[in-house]
UDP-N-acetylglucosamine 1-carboxyvinyltransferase (Solibaculum intestinale), 417 residues
Amino acid sequence: MAKLMVQGGKRLCGELTVHGAKNSALPLLAASLLGDTPSIIHNCPELSDVDSSIHILEWLGCRVKREGSTIVVDSSSIDRCDIPDNLMREMRSSVVFLGAIAAKCGKARISFPGGCELGPRPIDLHLTALRQLGLTIDEGHGELDCYAKNGLTGTEITLSFPSVGATENIILAGATAKGTTRILNAAREPEISDLADFLNGCGARIYGAGEGTIRIEGVSRLSGTEHTVIPDRICAATYMAAAAVTQGNICLRGIIPAHLGPVLSLFSEAGCDLSLNGRDLRITAPPRLHSLKTVRTMPYPGFPTDAQAPVMSMAALADGTSVFVENIFESRYKHVGELMRLGAHIKVEGKVAVVEGVPRLSGAPVEATDLRGGAALVVAGLAAEGVTEITGLHHLDRGYEHMEDTLRAVGAVLERV
Ligand SMILES: CC(=O)N[C@H]1[C@@H](OP(=O)(O)OP(=O)(O)OC[C@H]2O[C@@H](n3ccc(=O)[nH]c3=O)[C@H](O)[C@@H]2O)O[C@H](CO)[C@@H](O)[C@@H]1O
Ligand SMILES: C=C(OP(=O)(O)O)C(=O)O
């Protein structure tokens, strides 16, 4: 079993480039199905979830070529409209292929998606919305058999929660539906805007992405396009946390500061000095981090749930008590028990975690049980005295490209054995 051995206590200094966003690259790869000419997608990170998306595209009959971080998808040879259960289970984003396949083929057969286990992750909002667009969905034996006899037709859809995945599925299905689709209470995450930008490059007419109401005027055909994936704001937050806990001083290159609003405020509150220069961000950590008042995870533009765990490792070492309220997922504190093995003092009650900062953590064997929880353990391990031995690395490989190399380049001492 692979392990990450992290020798803590090294100050991080230097610069690193933030790779493309997983949560953008995955829906863009699904969207590439819709064009009738090839799409070229730059800045696709090397992640196991990206590999899973490529496997799905190839299964469907697409020709996919990868050169470094550029992926070219030619969907003109698509000859299937189903995704087998083993590919569906590999990641959450397998579910956004549903909207794309249904739009392209008028039918689709899938099962339920995988992804990080953060409590129940139903897809009811996706299915209700797609039904409103005219997709008939028969559920049984763990499968969803979907067909749209008369094609998809635009309509007004109100989401009871601004679900990221459901908003993406509606955009994908609505782009070539007959007539206009309006999404009320749409997710506003930057990854939604990136998807709309990609599809508009293909000839779609999507207006208002990034706002609470999105209007999609269906078009009869889409071409391919050339597009660059936005930088990963959650990786940026994770590497900032790594600098913060090691009294580090690093420059993150290629970020989009506007995507990091509440994250930047939080690092300032912790006493870090932040200096922005265009798309570069320098973070200089204080000798001891300050505690954080209350970190409430919220849909964008609020504080992202995906950054909650790495930031909790900072709070674990801060001077004073910090409070976290996890509002998005029911069970997103699985890293707490592992952080406590490293000496953190944390109490969890329902959606609230109270973190009493300690002056130091000490290395121990720990297990990553989900992607960002694993990232939190790496962050904590970089600060802990001695060696932190992390297992469950497949979770990290879903979301961080060459994490060890990236951290080693800024002075961390860690290796995968
Ligand atoms: C691949 C990807 O982009 N993953 C991100 C996406 O996940 P994902 O798209 O799964 O997240 P959603 O925004 O859909 O989920 C948010 C909340 O809504 C609930 N819900 C969602 C859909 C549904 O049909 N019914 C329902 O009840 C979920 O259980 C959860 O409690 O957004 C999350 C919230 O920012 C991030 O943590 C994930 O990193
Ligand atoms: C929860 C995450 O991913 P997914 O939705 O793919 O499980 C994440 O990126 O933190």
Observations:
- The chain has a mean pLDDT of 97.
